[in-house]
User: Fold this.
Amino acid sequence: MRRRTRALALVLGVAVAAPLAACASSESGPPVLTWYINPDDGGQAAIAQQCSDEAEGRYSIETSVLPRDASAQREQLARRLAAKDSSIDIMSLDPPFIPELAEPGFLAPVPEDVAAAVTENVVQGALDGATWKDELVTVPFWANTQLLWYRKSVAEAAGLDPAAAPVTWDQIMTAAKDQDTYLAVQGTKAESLTVWINALVESAGGHVLENPEASADDVQLGLESPAGQAAAEIIGTIGSERLGGPGLPTEDEGASLSIFQGDKGSFMVNWPFVWSATQAAVEDGTLEQALLDDIGWALYPQVTEGEPSAPPYGGINLGVGAYSEHTDLAFEAAQCIVTPEHQAEYFATNGNPPSSTEAYDDPAVTEAFPMADVIRESLELAAPRPQTPYYNEVSTGLQETWHPPSSVSPDGTPAEATDLITAVLRGEQLL
Assistant:
């Protein structure tokens, strides 16, 4: 019998042992749809109320907040779906976990008319992240990507103008070293490190997984390649030459922002939240307006000069639970949730970029985020992390072998990661 991953074994075990989490309710009046959301600043709850009002009595939507950690969200939803929980109508899903839920049939099939409607004028990165085995299995909601943020003064001193022409990792590494500044990246042993590795490999023209739809025994990794070696060279150089600063091994997105905002800040790869966070710090007097005025933005750095980068892709898609008693209404509600108007408002108020290209034309969006056009362009180039039911094993294996950054080498790390992940997927080793 073909071995299953630990994640899927956990799901199946719970499916046998756990009682059903919800039974059919004796509803009186319009159905109440439950939307399981990731924590935010209240934007999803506001959209739920707006769509409930627009439904004019056909249904209403109530929200239930999932844990803050993405892995904990995945575990909770997988457990409940394995127990055939009928209370899960709509879910806000982190894209890397979608194949794991789609493969065992935990997601209701997206009707053709819904698929046609929700994929119109949607950025390519979001479409890729919502698809499994060439089928749309979730509804694109908001999308996210990383930009290259830079201090204009540092870039000018280095003779670089990232807004005018793409820059490479070699260029910004050299600039940071020559000017004795720090290059802010995410080197902590966490999901953010996987995001960085994948973006570098994809930008170099490769893939972490060559056949992501394959079974655990047959998965082929693409790390032992020129692309994998190029990614390892960049990470290893930044780590060994201390270009990311002394805290690089524990540096996450928030720590990267703090370094970038400091006296030795120069260049940074990070998500769009950094703009509103810096604005807020200026407004409360923690940072000077001069710092905000010195910040520029551009597309993610290229690995190979002249070859477009493949920036990280993140965000949230909407899945409809396969055991929901109201799948038709849930898809109707999902279509309401992701209208360009709702996405634009969500971006302007909560800082989460739209998957809809139309939403970027909203005046509220361009006022709140002057780099909105660059975000949209980045999302067209963005590449999802490996889409596989075994994502947890792949991501954890990368973190185990590519950390700390100072230990990464093009000659050894790609092979070490390949050996570990392959052994784990075949049941020959534990993480």
Summary: The chain has two domains: 6-21+30-144+314-381, 147-310+390-425. Residues 147-310+390-425 form a domain with the D-Maltodextrin-Binding Protein; domain 2 fold (CATH 3.40.190.10). Residues 226-240 form the longest helix (15 residues). The CA atoms of residues 262 and 291 lie 9 Å apart.
